Amino acid sequence: MAVRHIQVFSDSQLVVNQVNRTFETKDEVLKKYLQLARSLISQFEDFSLTHIPREENQVADRLAKEGLPDLHRTQVFERPSFECAEDSSEE
């Protein structure tokens, strides 16, 4: 069974507005991520992205903060991750 409908909530108003085409993205690296995000979004029959202010979503904010010290799961890329993905798809 494939997922066809998805609702996403984010505390980043900038990201929400860029994905929803309310704000323009000027940074070239961010444009690549936005292009990738929109490509993935297009695979869904129905997609919504809604801004939730951090102060209204304390549970998610706490979970995000608890995950920060867990550095053994953190991967640092020397290049933007979309470039790494492009390299691996060419192999």
Task: Summarize this structure as a short list of keywords or feature phrases.
RNA-DNA hybrid ribonuclease activity, two-stranded parallel sheet, 45% helix, RNaseH_domain, alpha+beta, single chain, 91 residues
Give your account of this protein's structure.
By secondary structure, the protein is of the alpha+beta class. The chain has one domain (5-90). It has helices at residues 13-19, 28-41, 58-67, 81-90; strands spanning 5-10, 46-51. It has a two-stranded parallel sheet with strand order 1-2. The longest helix is centred in the middle third of the chain and has 14 residues, at 28-41. The protein is globular, with a radius of gyration of 16 Å. The two termini are 30 Å apart. The model has no long low-confidence stretch (mean pLDDT 82).
How would you sum up the global shape?
A: globular
Give the terminus-to-terminus CA distance.
30 Å
Low-confidence runs of at least 5 consecutive residues: none
User: How are the strands ordered across the major sheet?
Assistant: 1-2
Number of domains: 1
> What's the number of extended β-strand segments?
2
Helix content: 40-55%
Mean pLDDT metric: 82
Strand content: 5-15%
Order of helices and strands: EHHEHH
The major pleated sheet works out as: 2 strands, parallel
Strand pairing plus helix content: what structural class?
A: alpha+beta
How many separate helices?
4
- Specify Rg, calculated over alpha carbons: 16 Å
